[in-house]
């Protein structure tokens, strides 16, 4: 039996956290979520298998968080999918080290495919 994959979602919209969290749990993932993107940087040793990170959060820019995670040897291999309602910043999301980008509003099928693709890469 394979270990349940853990996904951390950071978004300052509680509706998105609830909706995406429910669907991911239904798909068999263990989901943790936070309204505070900065909290991701203070995660204990319990790192997720994948991060879904909103770019525009109050008090935190997902791109800055992504850069810090990718520079830390302990977290640099965690796939990060940055999410934003602004399609014009996909390039800067990828430049920040994101493994993928998703524009809001998004289809859940597209999100699930991106998650699956990233988790396949990491094993």
Automatic annotation (TrEMBL):
InterPro entries per the UniProt record, alphabetical: Bact_response_regulator, CheY-like_superfamily, Sig_transdc_resp-reg_receiver
The question of whether Manganese is a record keyword is answered with no
Note the SUPFAM superfamilies from the entry.
CheY-like (SSF52172)
Molecular function (GO) terms listed? DNA binding
Task: Name the source's superkingdom.
Answer: Bacteria
What SMART domains does the database record attribute to this sequence?
REC
What biological-process GO terms show up in the record? phosphorelay signal transduction system
What are the UniProt keywords, alphabetically? DNA-binding, Phosphoprotein
Q: Which intervals hold domain Response regulatory?
A: 6-119
Query: Which Gene3D superfamilies does the UniProt record give?
Result: 3.40.50.2300
Write one Pfam family the protein is assigned to.
Answer: Response_reg
4-aspartylphosphate modified-residue sites: 54
Q: Which PANTHER family match?
A: RESPONSE REGULATORY DOMAIN-CONTAINING PROTEIN, STRESS RESPONSE REGULATOR PROTEIN 1
The protein's name is DNA-binding response OmpR family regulator
Biological source species: Mucilaginibacter gotjawali
């Amino acid at each position: 039996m394979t270990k349940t994959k853990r996904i951390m979602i950071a978004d300052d919209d509680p509706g998105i956290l609830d909706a995406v969290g429910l669907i991911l749990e239904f798909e068999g993932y263990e989901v943790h979520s936070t309204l505070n993107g900065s909290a991701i940087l203070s995660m204990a040793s319990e790192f997720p298998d994948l991060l879904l990170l909103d770019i525009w959060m109050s008090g935190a820019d997902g791109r800055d968080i992504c850069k810090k995670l990718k520079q830390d040897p302990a977290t640099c291999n965690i796939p990060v999918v940055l999410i934003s309602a602004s399609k014009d910043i996909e390039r800067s999301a990828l430049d920040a080290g994101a493994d993928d980008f998703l524009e809001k509003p998004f289809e859940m099928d597209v999100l699930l495919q991106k998650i699956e693709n990233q988790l396949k890469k990491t094993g």
